[in-house]
C-alpha cells in the first residue's frame, strides 16, 4: 500500500489555506486545515499526522506557542513554519519552539513540496532508528518492548504486544481474523474458536479504557482496524 502523507495545515487565511491544500493534494498528500491555533491544537490531540505546517500569526494561540505545545507531546513529528515574518528573531523564536524548517511567504510552491518531502524522509529515518510505532498518543517501543498511552506505561503480555504491533503496523487497514491468526499466531484460523476476539478485548481494556479517543475498532463481518475516529 502506497504511503500517503497526512498533513495538518494551521493557517487562518482561508484563500491561502485552500490554495496550499489543493496544490499539496495534487502532489499526493492529504491535508486537513485548522483556521486557528486552538483548532490546530485540538486536531493534533485527536488525530495522527505525519507533518504539520504552521503559520505564526494565528487567532487564539500563535504558531510559536502551538509548536512548543506539540513538541511537549511529540518530539519526532516534523514541523514547518510558513509565515510572512522573516526577521532573524522571528526565525529563532520558531526554531527555539521546536520547528524543523522555516519558509517565508511569498514562496515558490515546488520549494514547499521539496522541503516537505525532505522533512518526511528524515522523519522516516528517525522512526526507523528509534524503532517506535505511534498512533495518536499510543506508542509501541519495539526495542524496549514497552507500550505507552498518553505517557503512561501499559503492561502487555507477549502475545498482546505482538497483536498490538501487527495492528499498529497496519494502521487504518482492516485485518481479518485469518490475517491475525497467520501473522501473530502463525496458525490457520479455526472458525470454531474465539481466542482472537478474546485478545482484542484484552487490548481494548488496556489501550482504550477511560479514553474518548478509541483506537481499536471492529468492522462487522470483516475484522479489526486500529485508527483514530
Written description of the protein model:
Strands 2-1-3-4-5 form a 5-stranded parallel β-sheet, with helices on both faces. It has a 4-stranded antiparallel β-sheet with strand order 6-7-8-9. A hairpin with a 4-residue loop joins strand 7 (138-141) and strand 8 (146-149). The protein is 44% helix and 20% strand. It has 8 helices and 11 strands. The chain is an alpha/beta fold and 229 residues long. The longest helix has 22 residues, at 109-130. Helix 3 (63-73) packs parallel to helix 4 and helix 6 (158-169) packs across helix 8 (195-207).
Average pLDDT, to the nearest integer? 87
Structural class: alpha/beta
How many β-strand runs? 11
Radius of gyration: 20 Å
Give the CA-CA distance, first to last residue.
Answer: 21 Å
Give the SSE map:
Elements: E1 6-10, H1 14-26, E2 30-34, H2 37-46, E3 51-54, H3 63-73, E4 79-83, H4 88-97, E5 101-104, H5 109-130, E6 132-135, E7 138-141, E8 146-149, E9 152-154, H6 158-169, H7 177-185, H8 195-207, E10 216-219, E11 223-226
Parallel strand pairs: 1-2, 1-3, 3-4, 4-5
Antiparallel strand pairs: 6-7, 7-8, 8-9, 10-11
Helix pairs in contact: 2-3, 3-4, 6-7, 6-8
Key terms:
single chain; about 230 residues; alpha/beta; five-stranded parallel beta sheet; four-stranded antiparallel beta sheet; 8 helices; 11 strands; about 20% strand; elongated
Quick structural summary:
The protein has 229 residues and is of the alpha/beta class. The protein contains 8 helices and 11 strands. The protein has helices at 14-26, 37-46, 63-73, 88-97, 109-130, 158-169, 177-185, 195-207, and strands spanning 6-10, 30-34, 51-54, 79-83, 101-104, 132-135, 138-141, 146-149, 152-154, 216-219, 223-226.
Amino acid at each position: 500500500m502506497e504511503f500517503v502523507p497526512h498533513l495538518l495545515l494551521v493557517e487562518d487565511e482561508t484563500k491561502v489555506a485552500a490554495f496550499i491544500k489543493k496544490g499539496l493534494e495534487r502532489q499526493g498528500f492529504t491535508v486537513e486545515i485548522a483556521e486557528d491555533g486552538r483548532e490546530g491544537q485540538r486536531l493534533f490531540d485527536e488525530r495522527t499526522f505525519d507533518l504539520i505546517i504552521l503559520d505564526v500569526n494565528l487567532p487564539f494561540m500563535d504558531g510559536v506557542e502551538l509548536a512548543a505545545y506539540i513538541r511537549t507531546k511529540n518530539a519526532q513529528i516534523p514541523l514547518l513554519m510558513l509565515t510572512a515574518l522573516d526577521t532573524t528573531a522571528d526565525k529563532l523564536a520558531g526554531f527555539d519552539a521546536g520547528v524543523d524548517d522555516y519558509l517565508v511567504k511569498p514562496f515558490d510552491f515546488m520549494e514547499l513540496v521539496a522541503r516537505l518531502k525532505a522533512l518526511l524522509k528524515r522523519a522516516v529515518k528517525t522512526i526507523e532508528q528509534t524503532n517506535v510505532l505511534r498512533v495518536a498518543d499510543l506508542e509501541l517501543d519495539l526495542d524496549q518492548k514497552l507500550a505507552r498511552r498518553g505517557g503512561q506505561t501499559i503492561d502487555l503480555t507477549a502475545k498482546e504486544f505482538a497483536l498490538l504491533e501487527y495492528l499498529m503496523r497496519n494502521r487504518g487497514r482492516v485485518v481479518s481474523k485469518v490475517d491475525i491468526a497467520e501473522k501473530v499466531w502463525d496458525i490457520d484460523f479455526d472458525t470454531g474458536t474465539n481466542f482472537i476476539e478474546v485478545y482484542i478485548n484484552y487490548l481494548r481494556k488496556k489501550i482504550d479504557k477511560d479514553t474518548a479517543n478509541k483506537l481499536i475498532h471492529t468492522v462487522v463481518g470483516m475484522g479489526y482496524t486500529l485508527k483514530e475516529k
